[in-house]
Protein 1
Amino acid sequence: MTIVIIGPPAAGKTRIGRRVAKLLDMTFTDTDKQIAAANGPIPAIFESLGEPAFRALERAEVVTALAGGGIVSFGGGAVLNEATQRDLDGCLVVLFTASVEAVQKRLGNSRRPLVPDIESWQRLVDARHELYESLADFTIDTSHRKADDIADDVATWITEQFDAQQFEKQQFEKQQFDAERPGPKPGQAQGRVS
Ligand SMILES: Nc1ncnc2c1ncn2[C@@H]1O[C@H](COP(=O)(O)OP(=O)(O)O)[C@@H](O)[C@H]1O
Ligand SMILES: O=C(O)C1=C[C@@H](OP(=O)(O)O)[C@@H](O)[C@H](O)C1
Ligand SMILES: [Mg+2]
């Protein structure tokens, strides 16, 4: 099962996602890091090729990352792609949110092409929050707690989902086994016929 972390820029997807993967001993892929490794820094891609070209590169990295499994952190806009939205049906999706106050402190000197200031971050969140929420299986607010504590909570939730899946699988296999076994079925009367 692939776990995908979505949410707005500076919500902590990259930093906390990496930590979650370490806690669970799973692989970690950040789609932005993959794009940058192959094509150079993201601001330069936006500048030289434009956003549509960046989104095409991003879609290709999403497909590769989802096929690889483990913990996958998306860039904030990756879920705008409709094929990606459909792909998330088969994944566990964790949404990271953050307050405008928390993000204001985090943005600092970091360069994000679509987020030159906090007002543009707020506009982006206003436009996307319904989409983010519609895709999420679990949502966590990263505004007020340490990254490591948030990672612990996310790892616990993922472990619970795995355990629940395992239990369902075992129940299903037991039902199959009972259905195929000759003789009285479980719950069926076993009285002697004279
Ligand atoms: N819970 C947190 N508390 C404080 N700072 C955080 C927290 N999570 C992330 N950060 C910081 O916020 C910035 C953005 O985090 P990042 O993981 O790059 O976010 P995203 O991938 O969602 O854009 C980084 O400087 C990161 O260290
Ligand atoms: O929200 C977006 O559209 C973007 C978010 C960025 O990633 P983070 O969400 O990791 O900052 C990066 O992919 C690019 O600048 C576009
Ligand atoms: Mg990131």
Protein 2
Amino acid sequence: MLITLEGLDGSGKTTAWEALHDAYPDAVFTREPTESWYGDAVYRSMSDEDADPLAELFLFTADHADHLSRVIRPALEAGKLVVSDRYSDSRFAYQAATLSETDLTRPLEYVQGIHAAFSRPPDATIYLDVDPETAAARAGATNKFERAEYLAAVRDNYEELIEANPERFVRIDATEPPEDVVEMVERSVERLLRERERRDGA
Ligand SMILES: Nc1ncnc2c1ncn2[C@@H]1O[C@H](COP(=O)(O)OP(=O)(O)O)[C@@H](O)[C@H]1O
Ligand SMILES: Cc1cn([C@H]2C[C@H](O)[C@@H](COP(=O)(O)OP(=O)(O)O)O2)c(=O)[nH]c1=O
């Protein structure tokens, strides 16, 4: 089963992802951008204020393709629980926002279309919901994406994705204290696994 954690920068994804390690020692914990050289290329692009948004989308997507074949698919085939800190929804939400400044029409549909041909959608996605101002303040604006105005556009895209796939998303109020957010995430994962077992056993 593939569970992804999504949300704005500073929403607490990494805090929750780390807390889950103890509860699920046999699970595979992974993240995007990855630690491969494709991931290095992504970070290089993120540090370039003038990076071409379309080129940047394809760098992120190349990293995802490698992540899928090297980590995600083998782990799922081995029957593992996989928990990924960011995954394809990050591309849909972030790159669609960056691409909205280009001539490309309907960027959200465009980015989703690219993935449809080869990607593997998550079974469930935990969305840590936080307002863009809190997100930008917590993240400390260390990269070009961590600005409140841009994050507001990203959040609108996440809302569109949730509206289109309500059964896949679990929304958690990430403005609550970290220990409460972690507990809500842990409970959600427990419930998702229980539901999965029940479905598989049926
Ligand atoms: N619920 C929370 N309330 C206040 N601060 C938080 C909360 N969750 C995380 N933080 C802090 O915000 C920063 C970003 O958290 P992190 O887990 O790295 O978020 P993300 O991975 O979503 O960017 C860290 O300094 C972390 O301690
Ligand atoms: C995976 C992914 C990340 N991003 C952005 C979101 C973050 O600003 C940055 C990831 O940097 P990172 O330092 O890992 O931030 P976080 O802890 O919030 O995940 O890359 C995209 O724009 N598209 C993507 O597909």
